[in-house]
Amino acid sequence: MTEPRAPDTVPEATRLEELVVITGFSGAGKSTAMNVFEDAGYFCVDNLPPEMIRGLVELFLHEGSKVARAAVVTDVRGGDYFEALNAVLDELAETGLRHQVLFLDADDQELQNRYKETRRRHPLASSVSAGIAGERDLLAPLRARADVVIDSTGLKAHMLRRRIADEMLPRQQVTRLAVTFQSFGFKHGPMRDADLMLDVRFLPNPHYVAELRPLTGKDPRVVEYVAREGKLDELYERLGPLLDFLLPQYLQEGKAHLMVAIGCTGGRHRSVAIAEHLAGRYAERDGLFVEVAHRDVERPAG
Q1: Is residue 123 classed as helix, strand or coil in its secondary structure?
Q2: What is the pTM of this model?
Q3: Of 210, 190, 211, 209, nearest to 199 (Cα)?
């Protein structure tokens, strides 16, 4: 277990006012989440066994405590996990302490890829796939009672940090809307965190053209093929005015981040081309910060 990390400046307070419990899948971004809260001035503790949350809360509720906000990461590394954590959460509800449970999720393939990159051993099993399957069964009840669930599939660290801040931290006056145009393939599963989702499988599919299949929607030859029947231009003629109307409305409403997901069959051709086009269209618009991401573009074309 790592040592508790206190913020550089501790807010003046006489007792704990808020506790955030961060949990979820190994590899789903819990460390990134803790960094978000630490940067926001929370007292943070990583890998805290559930039973020890009680003691930490009692310490910070003691008269004279200077810690007003705290965040703890607790997960399957804590051993006997669910019975203890569920009981602790029930006790927190009885105390009246303001608390939230943040659950970090990701799909199985994403978690396996992250373990391959880090070469870490899964805490539940020597086989990563077996560990993920076991963890998914164990975590289901906790996911159901979480206050906020964030799926980190396809999100880079900075995108996940922004999403967590948008969902969990006090909202300030928003002057820019961060828009992510995210391509994906339906055959690999839907985008569960999309605010707007477009299904573009009605467009000509380059997958069935042998010389285009290995390419992606970033290639002009693929874009030309997708546009050959005129339906792509018709889509843009209708979609552009819709987004031109919607984006300022979301900004005015105070939304800080918007994910527009574009899906085709495999996530390599049509959705990629459209996501790139939309990102280019809105890149220079005032009040917008635009990113483009492609969840499935690196998957095999077969």
Answers
A1: coil
A2: 0.57
A3: 190
Which tokens in the block code for residue 71? 């965040």
Give 50-102 pLDDT, tens digit per residue: 888 888 888 888 777 778 889 999 887 756 566 688 888 888 888 888 899 99
- In this structure, the dihedral spanned by the alpha carbons of residues 90, 97, 80 and 59, taken in order and rounded to 10 degrees, is -140
The residue extents of the domains of the chain are: 18-168, 177-294
Confidence of residue 231 (pLDDT cuts 50, 70, 90): very high
Report how far residue 295's alpha carbon sits from residue 75's, in angstroms, rounded to the nearest whole number. 26
pLDDT at 141: 86
Coil, helix or strand for 84? helix
Q: How far apart, in whole angstroms, are the C-alpha atoms of residue 122 and residue 124?
A: 6
Give, in words, the CATH class of 18-168.
Answer: alpha beta
**What token pair was written down for 253?**
């409403």
